[in-house]
UniProtKB/TrEMBL annotation:
InterPro entries in alphabetical order: MazG-like_dom, MazG-related_GP37
Native source species: Candidatus Mancarchaeum acidiphilum
Lineage: Archaea, Candidatus Micrarchaeota, Candidatus Mancarchaeum
Full protein name: NTP pyrophosphatase, house-cleaning of non-canonical NTPs
Segments forming domain NTP pyrophosphohydrolase MazG-like: 30-94
Pfam families referenced in this protein's UniProt entry, alphabetically: MazG
Length: 105
């Protein structure tokens, strides 16, 4: 399955209240929530010395779902987001700017 196929398939389980015109808000807050769930699973590696790979796998999937959702809300395909990210990172690598701070490097 490619990224755009995933994005299209994932929309079949979209259940947030579009009538509130809040899709981007709902999706972004959901993404942040899932990132928090991932962080909590990773925290438990340190606390309990327990690597819950299945749990982390699940949270990464949840994050992917919301990334697809936010992307759709602003009119981008998941493939466009992935390609844009790789182009940005490759440019930074070529320019020796892969480390450091700031979006505009
Ligand atoms: Mg989750």
């Amino acid at each position: 399955m490619d990224l755009n196929e995933y994005q299209k398939a994932s929309r079949r389980t979209k259940m947030y209240p579009e009538k509130l015109d809040g899709g981007i808000y709902y999706s972004t807050l959901g993404l942040c929530g899932e990132a928090g769930e991932l962080a909590n699973k990773v925290k438990k590696i340190a606390r309990d010395n327990n690597l819950d790979k299945e749990g982390i796998k699940g949270e990464l999937g949840d994050i992917l779902w919301y990334v697809a959702s936010v992307s759709e809300e602003i009119g981008y395909s998941l493939e466009e987001i992935a390609n844009y990210n790789l182009e940005k990172l490759n440019k930074r690598m070529e320019e020796g700017k892969i480390s450091g701070n700031g979006d505009e490097r």
